[in-house]
Specification:
308 residues; 12 helices; 9 strands; 17% strand
């Protein structure tokens, strides 16, 4: 089964070269690595991978969560499309093998477990544990009443898609501020396909975001949900958020790190405040929307688009 790896690249750091190097050691070799970038590629890409890499440059204004990935998919004729982000490094040589083995005729996407980097802060580690446990699962439409929004969850930080199903479902949303992977997961679930979380396929990926960054990120998450009521209006996000809070506090007790609770509370307040405002962004003036948003480029040309 042929596999192409597609990586959107924007202002990369050294993790990109580490990612490319580990891809070369996989038990299932990627036929091609398609890099969609804005011209800011690190110098000195590994020579031994040069023949496998296809670079596609686009204008910075065209770089988009969904559209850039769809362009990479258009450039591929492989049977399996593996999307990764530039800062996700495979944990071992079995990553692609694990993802590909999880795909089948009725599985639209299989996504990997995300492990924290060594420098990851404790609170972020607990959140990673909650969102990416050590046990995999398969979710279908039948899981919606119990799992709510979690049924739609997938992450294209590292995920494999059967190309035929990917195109049948229309790929990613071309213009979206956030959640293009979850929106695809929703199309898959509602279309009768399964989403698989493959815990044995692992990448290192984590961020030490500040409180303001969490606010901005969750504002964009709220905007995404407000712009797609056909997906998010009928499923609950708050219940999953409360489960996360309870899990993290229990882990702090277990590790005797209750001194982290005040920071965790502030973290949760910033997340919720951003999400709350993002879901109501249409009531805000455009200057406030831009100030709250992480992806300010998304709002270009929208000053007169129903927002004062």
């Amino acid at each position: 089964m042929s596999v192409d790896v597609i990586i959107p690249v924007y202002k990369p750091d050294e993790k990109l070269n580490r990612l490319l190097a580990v891809l070369d050691s996989q038990t299932i070799k990627p036929r091609r690595i398609i890099i969609v970038h804005t011209g800011e590629i690190l110098s000195g890409e590994p020579d031994y991978l040069a023949k496998n890499i296809c670079f596609r440059k686009i204008a910075r204004g065209e770089f988009d969560h969904g559209g850039s990935r769809n362009l990479g998919a258009f450039l591929s004729d492989a049977e399996v499309l593996v999307f990764m982000t530039q800062d996700a490094v495979p944990a071992d040589e079995y990553l692609l093998e694990g993802l590909v083995s999880s795909l089948s005729a009725n599985v639209a996407v299989a996504y990997a477990r995300q492990l924290p980097y060594e420098d990851c802060r404790a609170v972020e580690r607990y959140i990673r544990e909650f969102n990416y446990p050590d046990k995999g699962e398969r979710r279908t439409k039948a899981d919606l009443p119990v799992r709510g929004i979690k049924a739609f969850c997938s992450s294209n930080v590292c995920a494999a898609y059967g190309k035929e199903i990917f195109h049948r479902l229309g790929g990613f949303e071309e213009k979206t501020i956030f959640n293009e992977d979850m929106l695809f997961g929703a199309k898959a679930i509602l279309g009768g396909y399964a989403v698989v979380y493959t815990a044995d396929a692992k990448v290192y990926h984590s961020h030490n975001l500040g409180l303001l960054d969490q606010f901005h990120r969750n504002f964009d998450n709220g905007v995404s949900q407000a712009e797609h009521p056909e997906v998010f209006a009928s499923v609950s996000s708050e219940k999953e958020g409360m489960k996360l809070v309870k899990y993290c506090i229990s882990r702090m007790k277990e590790d005797r790190k209750l001194y982290l609770v005040p920071y965790f509370v502030m973290n949760c307040v910033c997340r919720y405040a951003g999400f709350f405002l993002g879901k109501r962004y249409k009531k805000l003036p455009m200057w406030a929307v831009r100030a709250c948003s992480l992806n300010k480029q998304y709002w270009d040309g929208r000053e007169n688009n129903g927002i004062s």
